[in-house]
Design a protein that fits this description.
The complex is a heterotrimer of chains A (431), B (273) and C (200).
Chain A: H1 12-18, H2 23-31, E1 35-37, H3 46-65, H4 75-84, H5 89-116, H6 125-148, H7 152-163, H8 175-184, H9 191-222, E2 238-240, H10 241-266, H11 296-304, H12 308-323, H13 325-328, H14 340-360, H15 366-393, H16 403-408
Antiparallel strand pairs in A: 1-2
Helix pairs in contact in A: 3-5, 3-9, 3-10, 4-5, 5-6, 5-10, 6-7, 6-9, 6-12, 11-12, 11-14, 11-15, 14-15
Chain B: H1 5-31, H2 54-66, H3 92-100, E1 103-106, E2 115-118, H4 132-138, H5 150-153, H6 157-165, E3 182-183, E4 191-192, H7 213-228, H8 232-272
Antiparallel strand pairs in B: 1-2, 3-4
Chain C: H1 18-45, H2 51-55, E1 59-62, E2 71-76, E3 79-85, H3 88-96, H4 120-123, E4 131-135, E5 158-161, E6 168-170, E7 175-177, E8 189-193, E9 196-199
Antiparallel strand pairs in C: 1-9, 2-3, 3-4, 5-6, 6-7, 8-9
Classes of the chains: A mainly alpha (431), B mainly alpha (273), C alpha+beta (200).
């Protein structure tokens, strides 16, 4: 970020605050005038949508926490009380539950955008890794939140997933069991478990918010990527964030809210599971334990691997591998737009992820198991084989000379144009 | 959008499918091998702007009270709920009478004893058994589930409940029916511990509706849906307002975006001209 | 990027139609404000008492065991309710007080109109003047006054005495001396029978 601040405090109060805690200056510099590539498409609106959804989840969550009772006897009942007696309780609860799904929909789209356009490549590696950390924290938070309802699915999902840690027993005898009993606070999932899940579920979103600030900071150091993958060369490649992208993000947000509202008001339980309206029964396992849709791909990977310990490693590895993408992808070209071979592998990867999602909802037997294993193989092969190899051997399409060129097209009259008043040096590789 | 629009749109459509398919898959699961085909019924509350039929809910409550409440509790409902908007909407007098018809346990009194008194509007529905163990003991070890949210706790919801209540049949030839169980076409596994609770004429209807098993099943299923989702009507109504608001807002935002970006396009033309 | 020229800031291009754009943007802002307020309201309203709290309206009390000169305290909506069975002398003393001597001239009785004066008849149970039913909370800062137990110090006026800051109430529960501004409130209640009161 080599731009000097152009902020001029307008009023006396602004001047006073500016010399003590320059928040208006930071807001002005980082969210209003910051030069942003002029060619960003709608896939770039999901960052703003995610920030909004984090705020929605935190606000609805905090007010729900005013009524929730974190004990095995009281939890399910308190949720029903919220739905029936608390003013607007039904709206707040459904907003929080449907909101979690919308949060994940947005984060997956946002992540796939990053994959497609090479937004993880230098100098944005840390930005990408912070994103993976946020995804991990979101997964943990959502898992804990779902457990609080203390329905059948809540209880048994916690039991199954925490039991995974006992696979460590095959590495060091007793380690896994000790760890699991530590997590449970007992010899099985119970009251102590519920209480600590509640405390941590309240905490994690604040941790996420902190990492999001780092994520935005890292973004602003490097500047946004853009659909061509070609870095900003001159000022002409950019426009100020406000009003162009503030209004575009606003429009995209309203469209996203339309989907959110349609689900909330007309199909609030569509993405859920009926079994979670049965109070938790430690003596009866539901016939099919299924996680929420956003965990299904990972669930499929876990069950595709026949060995318990390696299944857990596969599960953790499926997210862990994401951290190394900036170094696994050997291509010099950022954007898949200009990578004709890689493009096919990418879309196959997308289909694989969707397929894994479907397979995660089915019993792991017969053809489902076969395709689950095939899809799991391709999932890892995409990162560990396709990315390193295709990047080296592929002949990319010709890149546009600049962002402006890609938008306006090469103009013969450009040669006769006087250069712009201030020419910033090319920013590639320079912080 | 510059990137190829077809793959992009396909991606979003597939993501949407990815969210919905598991639900559809589960419904399919329920249909195959875990129960019978559950036919979809016509419910007044099913469409996006649908609402409950007040008379139907009142009849359904009668069926619950006379038949189901002998074994099934409904602990999340209180008599005062019967008077709420969007529900059976009994009058306050009717609710007082209904509540007073049951004896509820209260106390302890000044001597430390629990005592019985007539119910009041604020009381929760009286449970037939003091606890789960008593319920099991009275029902050959089977526990009649609480019905407060049963319409959301089963795949198929009210369709399933209706199918179950009208699904009692003689077992087909060769079917191995365990002693004490009944054959039911809708229940997963086809063997249910609950004896057929409904018979034509068992609950008198006073509004002219025919007192048939089919109508009892429809009415009590609708009642159970209300019991599980008492805010359904409020949700549908508010939803309509919110959707219209957001649609208009979306149009305004789109026009705003175009108006703001027009400057950029003007600038480009100015340069190129 | 300090140069405000149009090649870097297209917003400075002279406008073709600023008024139309402004209208649309004002519309957008208005919708955003309405949407924001609509989202904020449920977040605030959920803290109000919920339906189950509002429904726990009433308590029934058996007053048969209360002897003349005795008082009991029961709970209603989380608050203490003083029920005193007054003696003839206590009733006389309350009736004798001239209204203009009272600190608070209003009855503060939920069963009567707001402007009803604080006569003993308006404070005691109608048609049953030995019975006084009040919310036993001092109207100064919320302490529970003494006077229910037979051995309690009841203050100069024989009613109740608040130990926190010295407010003194008479035998109709009206404030006479001390920092409390109002008479103790009388909740909504009714006699179900000669021996049973329903409060709320």
């Amino acid at each position: 970020m080599a731009h000097p601040s152009t902020y001029q405090p307008a009023s006396g109060i602004e001047k006073w605050l500016d010399t003590r805690l320059p928040i208006p200056r930071v807001m002005h510099d980082q969210f209003m005038v910051i030069p942003t590539p002029r060619n960003l498409n709608y896939w770039w609106t999901f960052g703003g949508i995610l920030a909004f959804m984090l705020a929605v989840q935190m606000m609805t969550g905090i007010v729900l926490a005013m009524h929730f009772v974190p004990t095995p006897e009281g939890a399910f009942d308190s949720v029903e009380k919220i739905m029936r007696d608390v003013n607007w309780g039904w709206l707040l609860r459904y907003a929080h539950a449907v909101g979690a799904s919308m949060f994940f929909l947005a984060v997956y789209i946002h992540s796939f955008r990053g994959l497609y356009y090479g937004s993880y490549k230098a100098p944005r590696e840390v930005l990408w890794i912070l994103g993976v950390v946020i995804l991990l924290l979101m997964i943990a938070t959502a898992f804990m939140g779902y457990s609080l309802v203390w329905g059948q699915m809540s209880f048994w999902a916690v039991t199954v997933i925490t039991n995974l840690f006992s696979s460590l027993d095959s590495l060091i005898p007793g380690l896994g069991t000790t760890l699991v009993e530590w997590i449970w606070g007992g010899f099985s999932v119970g009251g102590p478990t519920l209480n600590r899940l509640y405390a941590l579920h309240y905490l994690f979103p604040f941790v996420i918010a902190g990492i999001v600030i780092l994520h935005i900071w890292a973004l602003h150091v490097a500047g946004s990527n853009n659909p061509t993958g070609v870095e900003v060369k001159t000022e002409k490649d950019t426009i100020p964030f406000h009003p162009y992208y503030s209004i575009k993000d606003g429009f995209a947000l309203v469209m996203f809210l339309l989907l959110f509202a349609a689900l909330l008001f007309y199909a609030p339980n569509l993405l859920g599971h009926a079994d979670n309206y049965i109070p938790a029964n430690p003596l009866q396992t539901p016939p099919h334990i299924v996680p929420e849709w956003y965990f299904l791909p990972f669930y499929a990977i876990l069950r595709a691997i026949p060995n318990k310990l390696f299944g857990v490693i596969g599960l953790l590895g499926s997210i862990g591998v994401l951290v190394f993408i900036p170094w696994l992808d050997t291509s010099r070209i950022r954007s898949t737009r200009y990578r004709p071979i890689y493009k096919w592998f990418f879309w196959l990867f997308v289909i694989t992820c969707l397929g894994l999602g479907y397979l995660g909802s089915q019993a792991p037997e017969g053809w489902y198991l076969f395709f689950g294993r095939l899809a799991t193989f391709y999932y890892f092969a995409f990162f560990l084989l396709v990315m390193p190899i295709v990047g080296l051997i592929e002949r990319p399409k010709k890149l546009p000379g600049s962002i402006t060129q890609s938008v306006l097209g090469p103009e013969p009259s450009r040669a006769a144009e006087p250069p712009p008043a201030s020419q910033e040096p090319v920013r590639e590789g320079v912080a | 959008m510059r990137i190829a629009r077809i793959p992009a749109a396909a991606l979003v459509a597939l993501a949407g499918l990815g969210m919905v398919l598991p639900g559809a898959a589960r419904a399919e699961e329920a249909a195959n091998g875990h129960g019978s085909e559950i036919e979809a019924q016509d419910w007044s509350f099913a469409p996006p702007l649908g609402s409950f039929n007040q008379a139907q809910l009142q009849r359904g409550y009668r069926v619950y009270k006379e038949i189901c409440a002998n074994c099934h509790s409904m602990r999340f409902l209180s008599y005062r709920n019967l008077g709420e908007l969007g529900g059976p909407h009994f009058s306050p007098k009717a609710i007082e009478t209904l509540a007073a018809q049951v004896q509820v346990t209260d106390g302890p009194d000044d001597k430390g004893q629990m005592f019985q008194r007539p119910g009041r509007a604020a009381d929760p529905f009286r449970s037939p058994f003091a606890n789960d163990q008593a319920a099991r003991a009275a029902n050959n070890g089977a526990l009649p589930p609480d019905l407060s949210v049963i319409a959301k706790a089963r795949e198929g919801g009210p369709d399933y409940i209706y199918a179950l209540l009208t699904g009692y049949r003689k077992p087909p030839a060769g079917f191995d029916l365990t002693q004490g169980m009944q054959y039911n076409t809708a229940f997963p596994g086809h063997q249910i511990a609950m004896p057929n609770p409904l018979v034509d004429g068992v609950v008198p209807y006073t509004d002219g509706t025919k007192p048939t098993v089919d109508n009892y099943a429809k009415d009590v299923s609708a009642f159970l849906m209300w019991a599980a989702e008492p805010k359904l009507e409020e949700r549908h109504k508010l939803g309509a307002r919110v959707m219209i608001f957001l649609l208009v807002f979306a149009v305004i935002m789109y026009l705003s975006k175009r108006a703001v970006w027009a400057r950029l396009h003007r600038r480009d033309h100015a340069h190129n001209a | 990027m300090a140069n405000p020229d149009i090649s870097t800031d297209p917003s400075l291009v002279p406008d073709d139609d600023p008024s139309r754009r402004d209208v649309i943007l004002i519309g957008a802002g208005a919708f955003a404000a309405i949407g924001g307020a609509a989202m904020l309201w449920p977040l605030l309203d959920q803290m109000n008492p919920d339906a189950s709290t509002l429904s726990l309206a009433s308590t029934e009390v058996d007053i048969a065991p209360i002897e003349e000169g005795q008082a009991i305290t029961v709970m209603w909506r989380g608050k203490p309710i003083f029920i005193r069975h007054r003696t003839a002398m206590e009733i006389e003393e309350a009736k004798d007080v001239k209204l203009d001597k009272l600190v608070d001239p209003l009855a503060r009785n939920a069963n009567l109109p707001e402007d009803a004066p604080a006569t003993d008849a308006n404070r005691a149970a109608s048609e049953r003047e030995p019975w006084l039913v009040m919310i036993g909370i001092c109207t100064h800062l919320g302490c529970i006054p003494k006077g229910q137990a037979v051995g309690d110090y009841k203050g100069e006026f024989g009613g109740w005495f608040c130990p926190c800051h010295g407010s003194q109430y008479d035998t109709a529960g009206r404030i006479r001396i001390g920092p409390a501004p109002q008479n103790m409130y009388i909740p909504p209640y009714a006699f179900e029978s000669e021996t049973k009161i329903k409060i709320g």
